[in-house]
Amino acid sequence: MHLLIVLLFLSVPLISGLPSVSPDTGAGSQAVERRQEPVPVPLGRTDLGTRDDMQSYQSTECQVGLWNGVDENRNSVYGEYNTEWQGLPFEGVPENECINVEDLNPGLVRTIRSFAVTGYCECEFFKDKDCLLENGKFSAYNRKDGALYKSDNDNILGSFKCRKTNNWEKFQNCSLASYPDDTKTGLGLTLEQKYFDPITGKTACAPLGMLSPFKKLKVKSCSCLFFPNTACDGAVDNIDPIREKPPVVDDIIRVGNNGTVTFRDIPTDKVMQSFTCYLPFELMPALQPRSIEHADGPRIQKRRLPPGRSVPDASWWGHYDTRDCRLGVWEDVEFNHNSPQDHVNWQGMPLGLEPHDMSQPNGYENNCVNMGMLHERLKKSVSSFVVAGYCECEFYDTENCPPEAGIFTGYNRADSSLAQHGNNDNIDSFRCWQTNHFDQFNNCTIAFSDGRDKNLDVTLFKPDFDRDSAFAACVSLPEQDELRQVKINGCSCTFYNSGDCSGANFPAGNGGTVEKLTDRPIGSYRCELPYGYF
């Protein structure tokens, strides 16, 4: 039996060349709520068509793409036969300045059905023009959404504004592992936040040392460049369809994003000598770092088939906003309400039917399931998936969930574009474990309004939530304020008509941004750590 030595950390000799850096303590820029007079239109194009296959969104420079095309199954189309705009929001327009869609392409006004935001920026999108605060719908950072209709945000967007950020303050660490041959034995190191410059998002150049030579590389939670010299010299221009720069060529190897990426079959005569890494900046909405607390639990050797079924359509769709662990996988198709019936899918509960309870052991935890056990046609044919609830699932490109890390993990994520991420038709097995990601949680915000002149903004931090139950305390609201609108960012909450969190209620919220409007004033609310895909 092979022994995996991937995490034989060599931090002292390997990263001694990386200086520790501290965040900039200077004052941040002030956001501009709306533009008061016309501003220049940012640099962009409306004619890229099929030249954009989404692989071009690989740059630290802020890039935005907007499209209105869908196929007969309401799946979004990124290519020709679209009205589109793709551009660079900070080229000609100040940070936080409102950009009206009608100024970019009049054909996109209230017709946008899909978008992409990549690079070191976060963009907020608004209903109608002029970026009015009360019309804010959602924000996005390194995110692509080809199904805005699922969140009722299609055909309404009229403006957006972007701010510069690389999310340094939320970053924890990334890891690199190299394998000299096809065996499971490898060497690895971990790069902590302090080694990344908070402004540029980049580490210093460092020697590879014992990590080279290698035949296979695995990078998790960052983007790295590997060079055939000791000074990190070479052509490093990112692919840029807006300015039509050429892609990275020569002998440089580039691996990584916000998930786990494996680069295989590197010629043995290609010896890399140095590397530099960046905070992640590419499109990886569904791929997440593995949970520390449960990811390395023992595999259950006697594999159990979890409860679930193959259904002809996405009839479970409304059931993915739940604490209980749910998983859906689809064959050769992007999932949606009208997925073709001749495409196989499986939707079920990988941790069993018992209600979620972190304090109790779960008989299905780390239970390895081969895709062929669910349906023979799902073996090496999965093109999209959903993982929701208080669990995380790891996916493997071989059967029986081997000891080395899988190709990626998912936690409260939906991904209908595995083909864009290099994992299409690769999944052969998976396992899931309980987690509410308490350790990774930072804070969430809830903004209340009466729709006129009364507003209340609340921020809940990690200490406000119980680690095991994931709940925060009940909070009462002043009766006289008659707050009827709420915007939740980063947690799941239940809102009540009463003042003591009892009686009639409605749930809202996940790891993203959700807005709700109610006929009756909100009297109280209680939040918990986020669940449900976004």
What this model shows, in words?
The chain has 534 residues and is mainly β. It has four domains: 122 residues, Gamma-B Crystallin, domain 1, CATH 2.60.20.10; 110 residues, Sandwich (Gamma-B Crystallin, domain 1); 127 residues, Crystallins (Gamma-B Crystallin, domain 1), CATH 2.60.20.10; 86 residues, Gamma-B Crystallin, domain 1 (Sandwich). The chain has three helices and 32 strands. Strands 10, 11, 12, 13, 14 and 15 form a six-stranded antiparallel sheet that branches. Strands 1-3-2-5-8 form a five-stranded antiparallel sheet, with no helix packed on it. Strand 29 and strand 30 form a beta hairpin. The two termini are 40 Å apart. The N terminus is likely disordered. Keywords: Signal.
What attributes characterize this protein structure?
534 residues, mainly beta, Gamma-B Crystallin, domain 1, 6-stranded antiparallel beta sheet, 5-stranded antiparallel beta sheet, 3 helices, 32 strands, 31% strand, globular, disordered N terminus
List unreliable stretches of 5+ residues. Answer: 1-17, 22-38, 50-55, 71-76, 237-249, 284-302
Helix/strand-derived category reads mainly beta
Label the CATH architecture of the largest domain: Sandwich
Q: Radius of gyration from the CA trace?
A: 23 Å
Q: What's the end-to-end separation, in Å?
A: 40 Å
Please work out how many helical segments DSSP would assign: 3
Helix content: under 10%
Gross morphology is: globular
Number of strands: 32
Q: pLDDT average, as an integer?
A: 75
Oligomer: single chain
Give the CATH topology of the largest domain. Answer: Gamma-B Crystallin, domain 1
**Tell me, what is the CATH class of the largest domain?**
Mainly Beta
Biggest β-sheet description: 6 strands, antiparallel
Strand content: 25-35%
Specify the CATH homologous superfamily of the largest domain: Crystallins
Quickly count the domains.
4
Region (Disordered): 23-52
Keywords: Signal
Signal peptide: 1-17
